[in-house]
């Protein structure tokens, strides 16, 4: 089934950890170099993808839709937390925490989180299908060369 996790949670965790590290690196690059709305939206999307990857890393056997819903809930919770003074106060004590908790509520961020988590989930499901299909020898839906379909 498309939503079934792959057979090896260890391999999945390694892949997720590498992807999470790459996402952090790309996110920090975007944070430092891109500005304006494009930088903001891209950063929000990468944040949501990172949360998806971290949830999947913690629960590698979880179904992808469950991972997606949980990741979106975490992102939304952090965004709603920005309606309070807590993120700003925490950033005064430890400035890098602003990268995790944000600095100000923006409803658009929730829409970006939903789209990014949905995209991450779809990519996760499709890539898992491709990997499992390749491992089982089902690389294409076509019959071998020279054979006719039944």
From TrEMBL:
Query: What's the short name of a Pfam family annotated to this entry?
Result: DUF2809
Transmembrane intervals = 12-31, 37-59, 66-86, 110-132
Name under which the protein is recorded: DUF2809 domain-containing protein
Instruction: Identify the species of origin.
Output: Microbacterium sp. A8/3-1
Does Protein biosynthesis appear among the keywords?
no
Asked if the Swiss-Prot or TrEMBL record annotates the protein with the keyword Transmembrane helix, the reply is: yes
Going by the entry's taxonomy, the superkingdom of the source organism is recorded as: Bacteria
The alphabetical list of record keywords is:
Membrane, Transmembrane, Transmembrane helix
């Amino acid at each position: 089934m498309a939503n079934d996790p792959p057979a090896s949670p260890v391999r999945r965790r390694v892949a997720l950890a590498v992807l999470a590290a790459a996402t952090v690196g790309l996110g920090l690059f975007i944070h430092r170099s891109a500005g304006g709305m494009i930088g903001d939206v891209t950063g929000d999307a990468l944040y949501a993808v990172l949360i998806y990857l971290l949830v999947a890393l913690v629960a590698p056997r979880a179904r992808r839709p469950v991972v997606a819903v949980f990741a979106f809930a975490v992102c939304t919770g952090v965004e709603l937390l920005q309606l309070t003074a807590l993120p700003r106060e925490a950033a005064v004590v430890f400035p890098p925490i602003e990268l995790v908790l944000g600095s100000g509520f923006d409803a658009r961020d929730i829409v970006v989180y939903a789209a990014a988590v949905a995209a991450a989930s779809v990519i996760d499901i499709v890539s898992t299908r491709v990997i499992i299909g390749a491992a089982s020898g089902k690389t294409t839906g076509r019959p071998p060369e020279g054979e006719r379909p039944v």
